[in-house]
Design goal:
Elements: H1 2-8, E1 18-23, H2 27-37, E2 42-47, H3 50-59, E3 64-67, H4 76-85, E4 94-98, H5 103-112, E5 116-119, H6 124-143
Parallel strand pairs: 1-2, 1-3, 3-4, 4-5
Helix pairs in contact: 3-4
Length: 144
Amino acid sequence: MLVADTASRITYVLDEPARILVVDDDPIILEFARVYLTTPVVDIQTAGGGAAALEALVSERFDLALVDLEMPGMSGFELIQRIRSVQRLASLPIIVVTGREDVESIDEAFRAGATSFVTKPINWRLLSYQMRYVLRAHAGERAA
């Protein structure tokens, strides 16, 4: 009975349908993202680096991307710039999720085209609220 009572009280912050791509070279972060961000109506896909992320974004439809800055090969900064250079992806909301919190990194991420910025360690509940806000704001912009 306790399990049923607990399950009936589960609430999801991300309660509107969305496809989200999480890009990070850390497999633990990718697994946590699947566990903490997936809901009955939210599909979480992952990519372990910039090249794989760009391929997925070009070939599939996503509503939001979460991008780490420090990855081998293509950095998050470069990935964001490349996303912004693809016409179909130019307005895709991008939330940077990184361990970097210096002013230079923040400024460079927004210059590259980031929509929002979150630092690690990740508070998954707070990130979910920020994602919901960004998704709703983006939907409002498209409707206007």
